[in-house]
Design a protein that fits this description.
Pfam families: DUF3127. This protein has about 120 residues and is mainly beta. Helices cover about 5% and strands about 50% of the residues.
C-alpha cells in the first residue's frame, strides 16, 4: 500500500539526534499542511540520511510517500508518520510531476486528400 500526502511545508522542526542500542540516530520533523476545504497540519518525520537526501524546504509544495506506525510504551500509544520518499511538484504541474495538458494551438486539422476513397491504407484489417 502506497500512502501519499500532498501539501505545503509550513515549518521544519529542529533536528534531533542521539545514540541507541543500534548506534547513532538522527531525525527531523516537518509540518505539512494539506489542501482542500478543511486543511490539516500533519507532522512527518524523516530519519537518518533521508534528511539530507530529501532536503525539504519551508514553503515548498511536496508529495510525501509515508508509512504509518504505532507503538505502545507504558500503556500509551504513539504514532509516527515516516517519509520514505519525497517528490517535489514541478512548477505549474500536478502532484507526481505531471505537467499541464497541452493547450490547443487554434490551428485546424489538415483536410484529408480529395480522392481519399481510392487510396488504400496500410492497415492489416
Amino acid at each position: 500500500m502506497d500512502l501519499k500526502i500532498t501539501g505545503k511545508v509550513t515549518d521544519i522542526l529542529e533536528e534531533q539526534s542521539g545514540e541507541g542500542r543500534n548506534g547513532q540516530w538522527r531525525k527531523q520533523e516537518f509540518i505539512l499542511e494539506t489542501e482542500g476545504d478543511y486543511p490539516k497540519q500533519i507532522c512527518i518525520v524523516q530519519w537518518g540520511d533521508n534528511i539530507d537526501k530529501f532536503g525539504v524546504q519551508e514553503g515548498e509544495r511536496i508529495t510525501a510517500h509515508i508509512d504509518i506506525a504505532s507503538r505502545e510504551y507504558n500503556g500509551r500509544w504513539y504514532t509516527d508518520i515516516k517519509a520514505w520518499r519525497v517528490e517535489r511538484d514541478q512548477e505549474g504541474g500536478a502532484p507526481g510531476g505531471q505537467g499541464a495538458p497541452p493547450s490547443f494551438s487554434g490551428e485546424p486539422f489538415p483536410e484529408p486528400p480529395a480522392d481519399s476513397g481510392s487510396v488504400e491504407d496500410d492497415l492489416p484489417f
